[in-house]
Structure formats: C-alpha cells, structure tokens
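Replying to the earlier thread about multi-chain prediction with a worked example.

Input:
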Amino acid sequence: MNRDTLALCSIFLLLVLLQVMLFNNLYLFGFINPMVYLFFIVVYRFENDQTLFILLSFLLGFAIDFLSQSGGAHTIATLTIAFLRPIIIRSAFGVTSEIPSSFQNDSRILSKTAFLALLIGVHHLIYYSIVFFNLNAFYLILKNTLLTSVFSLILIALVSSLYKKLNDS
Amino acid sequence: MQRIFNALVQFRNPILYFVLLGISLLFLNNRSNFHQSQLHNYSLYFSQSLYGVSHRISNYFQLKKINDQLLQENRALKELELKSNGIALYPSALKTKRRFPFQVKAAHVIKNSFLNQQNYLIIDKGAKDGIEEEMAVITDRGIIGIVKTVSEHYASVISILNQDLKINVRLKKNPAFGTLSWKGKNPIDFQVEDIVMNAGLEKGDTLITGGMSSYFPLGIPLGKITDFERNIQSGYYTISTELFEDPSQVYYVYVIENLEVKEINGLNKELPK
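Result:
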C-alpha cells in the first residue's frame, strides 16, 4: 500500500466522520448543511482508475447515508456525480491536453472554480431532487440547491487549500 | 464470446454505474416510506400512460369488432324502439297488439347504387342468416328498401331510390295515409301522393311508415314535409318530402323479418282481385 492510497483511505474516513459528526448538524440559517465529503470526488486523481472511483464513490455515499439515517439520496447523487466526473472535467478544464493529472496540480483559478461549481451544483441538484422527489417542490429544490451549493463550494475550496498546504509542507 | 467480453470491459463504467444506481434505488425504496410511496405513484403514473397507449393502439385494431358489437346492440335497441313506437301510435284500447310480430337482423351494405332510376343494394347477409325475399330493410333513421333476391351469403335489395317502389306512409300526427315514391333526381327528395285533402297538414310534419303492408311495421320515421300542393280536382294532396337519411350513404342496415308474413300472404291470395 503506497502513500497515495493510504492518504486516500484516510481522507475517505476523515470526510465521512466530519460530514456525519459535524456538518450534518450544522443547520446554517436553519436548513443549510454543507456537504464537505464531496472533497473526495475532487481530490481523487483525474488520471486514476475510473471504475474504482465509481465504486469508492458509491461506498462513500452509502456510508454517509448509513450513518446519517437518510434514505439513499447521498448514494445516488454521489454515484452519479462520480460517473459524470469525466464530462465535468472536460467541460471545466477544456481539451484533453490541458486536463491536469489532479485537481491540486492546476493553477487556473477560473477552471478550478468552474469545476467545483459544476460538480457541487449537479450533485446538490440530484440530491435535493431525490430528497423532495416531487415536481411541485421545484422552487424549494432550486433554493436549497443554490444556497447549499454556495456554502459547500466555500468549504471545499477552504479544505482544498488546507490540504494543498499540508501536502506541500 | 471474446467480443462480448471486450464490450463488457469497454463499457464497465456505465455498467457498474447503472448496477450501483439500481442498488441505491432499491436501498432508497426500502429505507424511506415517503420515497416508497412516491416511487409507487410514479410507477403507477408511467404504467397507466403506457397501458393507455397500448389500450388505444389495441382499441384501434379492435374497432371493427367493436363496430360489430355496437351494430348488434343497435339491432336489439332498434327492435325495442320499433315495438314501442308501434304501441304508442295505436289507440289505447289496442295497446298490447301490434300489426305483426317481427325480428330485426343487422347487415352491412357492400354495394349501393344511386345514380340510376332503378337502384339496388347488396347486403352481406343471405339465406344462411335467415334472409328471405320481400323482407323490409331499414336504417337507423329511415327505410331503405325491400329484399329482392337472396343467395347463400348475400341478398340484393330494391332501393327506395327506385321509381317502381311505392311505400305506404302516413302522417305521424294524423292517420291519413298515402304513397311515397322517389322523384328520380336528388336521393333525398321524395313525393307523397294520395293523401286525402281533408287531412290537415303543415310543412315540417313528420312522415312515418303506415303499416298497411306486410313489409314495414307501423311507425318508422322517414322524413318531413317540405312543401305541398292541393290538387282540387282529384281531392288529394301532392306532397314533397325530404328523407332524414340519405339512402346513398348507408353502410349499416337492419332487415326486418315479418314472422307472420305467410299467414298474411295466404289471406291476400284468397281476396278477389
């Protein structure tokens, strides 16, 4: 087991614990729970195996669902976003030659922000669609998606920069 | 086999995704009552619309069968209607009697001519279905003719669009009777002669079959009076009338069987000519 794998495993466990223990009980403004566990989807290297990634994402979502007593919304949203990640990478970072080997190895702020925003936005949209599961709650879904996305984005960006500093030092 | 395996390897990510998605949907369905009922609603909605489409499609192919069923139902209703019509027109003392007992059979028109002066129809019921010569043929809104010849499966009908055919008719509100015949031009323009002048009539009055023949039962509505002339010398009206049903555009007809026609004809023969 090399260093990267070990780091990935510890991130996985740490994110699950953080999400379940801390962020699921945050209730900013009464209803916003930022989903910081999506950092795993961000930090998994772009060049690594996609099949394993889908499996791991499924496990991640399942763990969150299992520990937070929710139905299956986290699992479905995380699984789907993992499946769609190559498309999101292409649309955020441009042509194949410009795609970095991992999120950390890129310095273009705009592309990185676009990548994060797309990833989080799509994930939250799927998540809240499944949570409300009703066409009549369309505005509620949109409102929750937008507001939660903003906070998730900020938090994941913060965690990302922190992780980068930890790695560099 | 190798190619299947290759395809599996090539599409492993989508396959894995959909398998896991299915598992998580199952998970969602089992864990949450709300989602269970919502999923149930959606599946109901989808299956309903799916069944709706297939129902419409299969309905389309069953139209012919349904048409036949409706024709049969209409036949039964027509029989009832004719019977009750007859009763309503009789004086109350004779309410339970009819001119003659009859049965109604449904048939399709397979050939219909209306451009000649002597027109005929062919219907798809024949001797096998109990059709006999000289039975009356009517439609849902009028009469159409009299059976002329019968083969095993088909029968030819003298159309009322035939100047040789004279039909006994009467006014609905007044028992004065006369003879209906075709003018020979427009398929719905007919004339009625021999209605006595002392019978009061107006434009728009309804004409019905008179029941004075052994063909048609009393009380089938035929058409309405559009115009009439008093013929002072002969003492009869000459009436122009318009049929309710255009005989050139009929597709379904009912054949009326007079159950006692032999008895009536037997008596007719004994009458002095």
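The interface with chain A takes residues 12-14, 16-17, 20-21, 23-25, 27-28, 31-32, 34-35, 38 of chain B (CB under 8 Å).

Feel free to reuse this layout for your own posts.
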